[in-house]
Amino acid sequence: xxxxxxxxxxxxxxxxxxxxxxxxxxxxxxxxxxxxxxxxxxxxxxxxxxxxxxxxxxxxxxxxxxxxxxxxxxxxxxxxxxxxxxxxxxxxxxxxxxxxxxxxxxxxxxxxxxxxxxxxxxxxxxxxxxxxxxxxxxxxxxxxxxxxxxxxxxxxxxxxxxxxxxxxxxxxxxxxxxxxxxxxxxxxxxxxxxxxxxxxxxxxxxxxxxxxxxxxxxxxxxxxxxxxxxxxxxxxxxxxxxxxxxxxxxxxxxxxxxxxxxxxxxxxxxxxxxxxxxxxxxxxxxxx
Length: 288
Ligand SMILES: NC(=O)c1ccc[n+]([C@@H]2O[C@H](COP(=O)([O-])OP(=O)(O)OC[C@H]3O[C@@H](n4cnc5c(N)ncnc54)[C@H](OP(=O)(O)O)[C@@H]3O)[C@@H](O)[C@H]2O)c1
Fold this sequence. Notes:
With 288 residues, this protein is of the alpha/beta class. It has helices spanning 2-26, 42-54, 66-78, 96-107, 131-159, 180-199, 233-245, 255-267, 270-285; strands spanning 33-37, 58-63, 82-87, 112-115, 162-167, 205-212, 215-216, 231-232, 250-253. 36% of the residues are buried.
């Protein structure tokens, strides 16, 4: 009889723990101030709409195109969500303090920063990129992103609380044709986020690195090569939100790309990887 009661109590405790774990994940974004860079398009836009309308977050929508942000903001508010527009150009770091202060005026300190904005190589191989194009990718994806992240982190450290999410890419794992500068910035971002995770280990600030595969957004519309396991921006947003709510260190999707394709690709030695990629992709880029 005593044993039966003990098993019953243990069972109830397990159910209670499971329930609290599930509800804490459900409520992770509720009333939190989520600041999303690159919220005017693609993954950032889908994330903003999902978090504000389905997860109860208060979202700062940041990018250069204010008209697009206003439209998304109205859409969110029409659905009962909470959002505000913040004009932000990652290539102009002098404007960062003003943008940050403006976002905190109505929504308070940033609880979650999603560093999502980026530009790519525009489908060009390295030798065809102008120095201005190279600068633009580095300024946006790396320098601007890191400067802004540094500013937000300084604020988070004052309260010893926060979550920084960096949208990197599976393209950061290995060098790819037409992805030279873009891939280098993503590899650098993933590396930096890992350093931060170690430096902030004993704080209450979490770092999550996201490695998306192909997501159907304007950024990849012009790409000629096959887009393996392409997913929609809305699906990507749900997957990212789920990984963030679990405070994962690192999360890549689709599952098959992160756990099968990339694992295999990482094991291939250079002597095989280089000619293999050359012959598989050269028709898409060699004269482009
Ligand atoms: N789509 C994919 O297949 C894929 C795969 C792997 C990783 N990713 C990553 O996912 C993230 C989102 O990509 P996406 O596909 O959604 O791209 P996207 O649709 O082209 O959106 C890019 C966003 O970045 C913003 N942006 C660009 N330059 C900026 C600047 N100087 N200052 C501030 N904002 C700037 C753009 O807004 P404005 O032009 O209005 O400023 C836009 O909102 C990126 O980090 C990308 O590397 C995408």
